[in-house]
Write a structure and sequence with these properties.
Blueprint lengths: L1 H34 L5 H13 L3 H12 L7 H17 L8 H11 L5 H18 L6 H17 L4 H17 L5 H4 L1
Length: 188
């Protein structure tokens, strides 16, 4: 009987986590839709910032998946804000975004191909924020974070697209400028 109640408790907990995740994704999507309209743009920005600030550890992954799930079909304001939100997440949740850094940086590098310069500028800004918030702890993990930030950017420098190369160079400069004493051996 006791084992049965424990199983029910676990199942209810799993359903609850899924429901919380679904509700968060729904709120994020509603706020993202507000970004697409000039009249509701600022409201959407404020809602997304508030959501990002108040996230708990189990809500980081669903939030990240929502903001990474943008494509070129969406308006540039939505694409720009999704990139900016990655920096906002790192400001409020430095310790919790570590597992998502590779996906976030890959998304930013992908956005360097965006036809809108506002989105590409947001990529450069966000890479600087990520570098300043995630690589300035003064410990050995800083080198790993630094490498995670610059490796995809270095790879983008080799693309045959001037916009991507320029954006990647600006991102690289921003990461180096905003990282606290990056290892000389890594810089070489």
């Amino acid at each position: 009987m006791k084992a049965n109640s424990q199983m029910k408790g676990r199942g209810a907990s799993r359903v609850n986590v899924q429901q919380v995740s679904f509700e968060l994704k729904h709120k994020v999507i509603l706020a993202l839709n507000k970004l697409a309209d000039r009249d509701t743009y600022q409201i959407g920005v404020e809602e997304l910032d508030k959501l990002a600030e108040c996230l708990t550890s189990e809500k980081i992954a669903p939030f990240v998946s929502c903001i990474l799930d943008t494509d070129s079909e969406q308006k540039s304001a939505v694409r720009k804000e999704c990139v900016r939100l990655m920096g906002t997440l790192s400001k409020f949740h430095q310790a919790l975004v570590g597992p998502h850094v590779n996906k976030m940086v890959a998304s930013i590098v992908k956005r360097l191909k965006d036809s809108d310069s506002v989105v590409r500028d947001a990529c450069v800004e966000t890479m600087g924020v990520l570098a300043s918030k995630l690589s300035n702890h003064g410990d050995e993990s800083d080198d790993g974070v630094f490498v995670a930030l610059v490796r995809p950017v270095f790879e983008a420098l080799g693309e045959h697209n001037k916009q991507v190369q320029t954006g990647a160079a600006l991102c690289l400069a921003r990461v180096i400028d905003n990282s606290h004493d990056p290892s000389v051996s890594i810089l070489q």
